[in-house]
Design a protein that fits this description.
938 residues, eight-stranded parallel β-sheet, five-stranded antiparallel β-sheet
């Protein structure tokens, strides 16, 4: 069996073009590489054609586009034969809605009477002018009235299912069977079929089921069965449905009247931000939030997962978007009990499997200084905080400050990141999440009005107070439960309340005392007479809101507006945080060694803003800020003619132009020539940069946006990219860019090898995103989901790499794969050391000491010394050549501590006689030494 805690994971993105059988062929490669677990993207049934798998429509079947049950069995067998584990990226927070989701269709058909209605987070009562409420469906491309009169909404009959549905292109909206009687009478009359046998049969059914409330939910299948079986009925209905067509007399009125009596309301997509009344995954209308806190829903969506656990085919779960759940602490506790129950079902006798831990991580963004809550049975996060930690270690802080100043000189109006973030939050509150915020504000006002002591707080003032609280809230969410508020959460809430109170323009500042006590649920604890149900609903739903609020404001808006150094603009990151010293890094690692040591360490995921090696290249700009500033100034000058001016605006904006130059540095191919023009820029590369630039501009929501694209601005942006990447038009620029990119490529590659070594040796479980064994120069998704040439990677595996030769041809990326394989095999050789070993910093002396990070991992079975360099400009002539020693630094180790260590990478020949950094790093920018148990100190 694979180890319970992975030694290393490999993230694989499954798709209709790379399914279970293709993954089977990859198993020998993963085994040879040295990972212990395949960490797969969601493979439960998703919406047909999905390119990522997060739009689940059925949690209890395997995705047929990946090969279904039989192909999965082959993959499970191959993994078992290789002693590799399988981790599933599981989606408990949401489902895709639409014609392929049987639960959702049933809810649309029956409203609250559907047994699945409890599974979706719908505020039924918020849909106006509907008896019993309903669901707003903002799916129309234009206003409802226009779509209706244009005939774009059609009533159709499914003769096999015996059911009626309204269709808008490929969107299906089922008609409630309790309205079939009216439809049948109308179509028989329109078809003039009252005297035909089929017509009489249909009228008989209309009479039988024509009483109010008929048919019931349980009897509706019988009505549909009778409609499907009635001879000639389909023909009569087809003829009679012309009555509901837009070009028929009174047809628009008839169809509108029918639609108004459904449990949903069709509307233009533009109503979504302000009117949508079901919780979504962020602002994606096609993904509806699940109420997994409902026990029936919990059981229903985990059934297949339980079976896979019981059969030993699944060894871990990665929980997607844990902060989207109503009560994550309750969920993880239930999940652990659920896992134990299914493990015991497969045990030959009680106790055989029930005590075996099951590996669970959570996708959770931790802000600076924030600690992971004590989720039940969770090994840790998926590693974004460690990605940020490594990036801050690699960035040169002095150079970063100079790049900040350069950014402010180019775009002074966006120079203050705090202001950029607040403006982004206001934009999101007013647009993308306006409906969700209004629901919370109304609930808060209702709570206040229900008690004599707070009934005079005006609704608009409560809304403003809540807005200030949200603007000042510093993290993704707190974890208040019905049981109360932890000290950590109380402190976070208190700081946000105090900051909001300081901004309050008015005499009623005590409104914040009420708001604080509502959020912490102290109003319940103190038995003040407020509605405990409404208070719990408000407090817990507010926590569900702050996560999407932060994600859309910070990750998907502010980080696409502030481009001082986009290598720091990453998921879970903050571009204003200072670089880390080696001492800062050691402090964080020593803490991690005692807390959540089995969480993942990621440097690239499907959600990162750019590939891990594109990021290190951009971070390397902080090593050579002077040459970078000079090149940017020259590029802006020679490319000025490609900028389009209109209405006192320019396209691209100055900020986007600067962003494009950084993106080009990150993605520029290592295999292209140093000088230009020797060959045209690859057309695929131009298309990738264009796609990235448009997405980045829309996410930033300044010059254009997803909701309101500015076609003229986007046309100018595309035109600029095509011009500057055209050798016939921008030869001077391309020659300059190619030469500079070669230097940053080398600096970035060296930083990447340091990043890789630290990821594989520091506390935690290293996670490898597919294809990153070679240089990962991808941009944001979908660019990072491009097909991977696994054959090339498998062919380059070698047990004993020739490091000098690999360093001489570093641009091909084989050196990175060789180092990955060596490090992973080292983890397999010393599993206890990496899983349980301690962490101790190693002192470094000498002029270059601040550019060296050294530490030991120790365990009773052995010890490891890791030495890694950073900030390579002085050793490489600002990126002109591979470094060959020359480091003026020495490890502060006694003779007995050094004695017995041997080269674990095979990069040095014989181990140096003394801990001299220049000797240790004479071929690679890193060194790893292994030995027996720690010797006594001198």
């Amino acid at each position: 069996m694979p180890p319970t805690v992975p030694l290393a994971t490999y993230r694989l993105q499954l798709s209709k073009d790379f399914g279970f059988d293709q993954a089977v062929h990859l198993v020998p490669y993963l085994k040879a590489l040295g990972v212990t677990h395949l960490y797969a993207s969601p493979f439960l049934t998703a919406r047909p054609g999905s390119d990522h798998g997060y739009d689940i429509v059925d949690h209890n079947t395997l995705n047929p586009e990946f090969g279904g049950d039989e192909a999965f069995a082959r993959l499970a067998g191959a993994l078992k034969g290789a002693d590799l584990g399988l981790i599933l990226d599981f989606v408990p927070n949401h489902m895709a809605v639409g014609a392929s989701n049987a639960w959702w269709l049933d809810v649309l058909e029956w409203g609250r009477k559907s047994p699945h209605a409890v599974s979706f987070d719908i505020a039924w009562e918020l849909l106006p002018y509907r008896h019993g409420g309903g669901v707003l469906l903002p799916v129309l491309g234009r206003p409802y009235g226009e779509a209706l009169t244009a005939g774009e909404i059609e009533l159709k009959f499914d003769p096999q299912a015996g059911s009626f549905s309204a269709w808008y292109f490929d969107h299906r909206f089922p008609i409630n069977p309790q309205r079939f009687s009216d439809i049948l009478k109308t179509v028989v009359a329109a078809a003039k079929a009252a005297d035909e046998p089929a017509g009489r049969a249909l009228l008989a059914l209309a009479t039988e089921y024509g009483t109010p409330g008929a048919p019931s939910y349980s009897r509706a299948p019988e009505l549909k069965k009778q409609l499907a079986a009635a001879p000639g009925a389909a023909d009569v209905i087809a003829r009679g449905l012309v009555a509901y067509r837009a070009d028929a007399e009174n047809g628009v009125h008839l169809l509108h009247r029918l639609l108004e009596r459904q449990h949903y309301r069709l509307a233009t997509w533009r109503l979504a931000p302000s009117g949508i009344n079901y919780r979504r995954f962020f602002d994606i209308n096609e993904l509806a939030g699940l109420r997994v806190e409902d026990m029936g829903t919990f059981r229903a969506i985990h059934r297949l997962v339980g079976k896979l656990i019981a059969t030993g085919q699944l060894h871990g779960l990665r929980l997607d978007h844990i902060d989207g759940l109503y009560n994550p602490l309750q969920y993880t506790a239930r999940l652990q009990q659920f896992i134990r129950n299914w493990q015991n079902r497969s045990a030959p006798d009680r106790g055989t499997r029930r005590d075996r831990p099951f590996y669970v991580t959570v996708e959770k963004i931790l802000e600076e200084g924030e600690q992971l809550p004590r989720f039940s049975g969770v090994a840790g996060t998926t590693g974004y905080e460690w990605l940020t930690c490594l990036s801050r270690l690699l960035v040169n802080e002095d150079g970063r400050r100079r790049l900040d100043a350069l950014w402010r000189s180019i775009v002074p109006e966006l120079g203050d990141f705090a202001a950029v973030l607040e403006n982004a939050k206001l934009r999101v509150l007013d647009t993308i999440l306006a409906s969700e915020f209004s629901v919370l504000s109304q609930l808060l006002a209702r709570i206040a009005a229900g008690h004599y002591s707070t009934r005079d707080y005006a609704a608009d003032r409560l809304r403003d107070a809540l807005k200030f609280y949200v603007l000042e809230f510093p993290i993704y969410r707190t974890y208040v439960t019905s049981a109360g508020c932890s000290d950590t959460d109380r402190a976070t809430i208190g700081r946000a309340i105090d900051a909001a109170r300081r901004r309050w323009p008015g005499p009623d500042a005590d409104i914040f005392d009420f708001l604080r006590d509502a959020i912490t649920l102290d109003l319940i604890a103190d038995s003040r007479g407020y509605s405990s149900t409404r208070l719990r609903q408000f407090a817990l739903k507010l926590q569900q809101f702050t996560g999407p609020m932060m994600a859309k404001s910070l990750e998907d808006t502010a980080l696409y507006r502030y481009h001082a150094l986009i290598g720091l603009n990453e998921v879970g990151g903050d571009p204003t945080l200072p670089g880390l010293s080696a001492q800062n890094f050691h402090e964080r690692m020593r803490h991690r060694a005692g807390h959540f040591t089995h969480g993942l360490t990621a440097t690239a995921t499907h959600d990162t803003k750019r590939g891990e090696d594109a990021r290190t290249r951009i971070l390397a700009l902080s090593d050579i800020p002077g040459p970078w500033a000079e090149h940017v100034a020259r590029w802006r000058e020679i490319n000025a003619g490609f900028v389009i001016e209109f209405h006192n605006r320019r396209s691209p904006s100055a900020g986007h132009e600067y962003m494009i130059y950084q993106a080009l540095i990150g993605a520029w191919s290592n295999t292209w020539p140093n000088t230009w023009p020797q060959a045209p820029v690859d057309g695929d590369f131009t298309a990738r940069i264009e796609q990235y630039a448009i997405k980045a501009a829309r996410e930033g929501k300044l010059e254009t946006s997803w909701i309101s694209p500015d076609e003229r601005y986007e046309a100018g942006l595309k035109s600029f990219i095509h011009a500057v990447l055209d050798a016939n038009r921008a030869g001077e620029f391309l020659q300059s860019l190619a030469g500079f990119a070669r230097r940053t490529s080398l600096l970035g590659a060296l930083g990447s090898l340091t990043q890789l070594t630290l990821k594989a040796t520091m506390p935690g479980v290293p996670d490898f995103y597919q294809g990153t064994e070679f240089w990962d120069l991808s941009l944001v998704d979908p660019d990072n989901r491009r097909p991977v040439d696994f054959a090339a990677r498998q062919a380059s595996l070698t047990a004993e790499p020739q490091w000098d030769e690999l360093a001489g041809r570093w641009p091909d990326g084989h050196i990175k794969l060789a180092l990955t394989q060596k490090l992973l095999h080292l983890r397999q050789t010393h599993p206890a050391l990496f899983e349980q070993g301690g962490y101790e910093p190693v002192g470094v002396s000498g002029p270059d000491s601040d550019r060296i990070v050294a530490f030991t991992r120790t365990h009773r079975t052995g010890r490891l010394l890791v030495v890694a360099a950073r900030h390579f400009a002085p050793q490489t002539g600002d990126g002109e050549h591979w470094p060959r020693g020359g480091w003026q630094a020495r490890l502060v180790l006694g003779a007995s501590q050094w004695r017995g260590l041997r080269d674990a990478l095979g990069s040095q020949g014989e181990a140096p006689a003394k801990p001299d950094v220049s000797q240790l790093l004479k071929t690679l920018p890193v060194a790893v030494m292994a030995g027996g148990p720690a010797a006594r100190r001198d």
